[in-house]
Amino acid sequence: MTTTIRGGQLARLLGQWHSLPGRHRSPDYAALAAAVRGLLSDGRLPLGVRLPAERELAEALAVSRTTVSAAYRTLRETGHLTSRRGAGSWTTLPNGHRVATSGLWTPEDDRNVIDLGVAASAAPPELVPAARAAADDLPRYLGSAGYHPTGLIELREVVAAGYQARGVATSAEQILITGGTQQALDLVLRLLAPPGSPVLVEAPTYPNALAALSARRARISTHGLDTATGWDGEMLLGALRQTRPRLSYVIPEFHNPTGHLMTTSLRERLVATAHSTGTDLVVDESWVDLQLDGDEMPPPVAVFDRHSRVVSIGGLSKGYWGGLRIGWVRASAPLVQRLAAIRVGVDMASPVLEQLVAVRLLEHSPKILSDRRAELRRQRDVLAAAVTELLPEWRFVLPPGGATIWAELDGPISSALARAAEDVGVRLAPGPRFGLDGTLERFLRLPFALPSEQLTEAVRRIASVRHDLDRATIPSWRTPSVIA
Ligand SMILES: Cc1ncc(COP(=O)(O)O)c(C=O)c1O
């Protein structure tokens, strides 16, 4: 079904469209078209949405109808809008574009674009040998239909052994293999969060988790993470006690996007409080393998779980390769069975070959992970040095793990900067993508999963448009007006 966005709503999303960088050089209609393209590319304006009638948008933006008409024509010409007489105009995608793993639209063939929208590394060299070995393993499974809704037992055993090694007793029956951590989250929400359920998440948080929650029509509330220090225990536990949510989603290990690591004592108190408020805790361990500094890791949140309140989800995307699409749920064995029953109605089972590749890959996990950590450490330090040198007003703390720096900018400019960066071939996921209601404009996530040369080049390009932004927009956001 096509959804419609009203004039007032689109005007709100467009925000300061008339003061984008370069605005002084381009006419109104071009600036408006560029701003709509920007919203599409950062995912805040979905695909297939019907835009307001020209007259309605003109009124909402206080511009002439000719301006909106010309902007719509420009968007049609670039392939971002399709119109049919009588049916209206809806957002589309130019040919040759695809959906990125982050849910953002990216040009497929533009090799010059540096993609800082995605925080995940390229595959390790061990992948191809693992795939060859897996192909040799495949005949063992070819004599059956190949549907294994809970996953191949050999992979479930390896994943369970990983939890054992981290100090939490886990059997293979407690593991469900999924198509990535994202599917793990979706399945858990289908089971544990009926439509309309109150759900507590961190702010900022992982955008695709917000997307999964919205798709399940959760009533989302947030508790804020401090940029420098991470979780405020009293705030988090207070929010749980006050809102008594059905479910709470947390990323305790190298939180995406801030990179923070939750302390052992807060993990323990979190589980106890969740039990007392009747809240299921969904713990996203996507980044757990990627500690870059520090000593011993805190134990998994599930260690403190005595009442089957904790459902852990994780996967191979961050430590190994996202293209494998291998993730999992760790829960009680009966819950795993219920999730598998739901999963049959979604995609039946995960592909056998990919699971065999995962088993073979995990045989080399110590080397793969230590190489990955060394690479991320180098890239983090290069990125941090470039930002410190070229954007000295930005503030950040060096994350002890993960692959993202969460930078506090020198103004509420994140979306405008992302649009401007697109013009110089850098894709950014602006701060508001990590929260609700367009907040977090003062923040930007900078991943360091790309090679060092690309990171320094990206910062150089961002710094150059940051400078332009200043010249174009100073009056609109630097001087708050006083309302007496
Ligand atoms: C916190 C978090 N959860 C889930 C995912 C998605 O992971 P997967 O590729 O395993 O579906 C990501 C990827 O960025 C992530 O950062």
Automatic annotation (TrEMBL):
One of its GO terms (molecular function) is transaminase activity. This is PLP-dependent aminotransferase family protein. Keywords: Aminotransferase, DNA-binding, Pyridoxal phosphate, Transcription, Transcription regulation, Transferase. The keyword DNA-binding applies. InterPro entries: Aminotransferase_I/II_large, HTH_trans_reg/aminotransferase, PyrdxlP-dep_Trfase, PyrdxlP-dep_Trfase_major, PyrdxlP-dep_Trfase_small, Tscrpt_reg_HTH_GntR, WH-like_DNA-bd_sf, WH_DNA-bd_sf. SMART domains: HTH_GNTR. In the C-terminal section; belongs to the class-I pyridoxal-phosphate-dependent aminotransferase family. It comes from Paractinoplanes hotanensis. PROSITE patterns: HTH_GNTR (PS50949). Residues 26-94 form the HTH gntR-type domain. PANTHER family: HTH-TYPE TRANSCRIPTIONAL REGULATORY PROTEIN GABR.
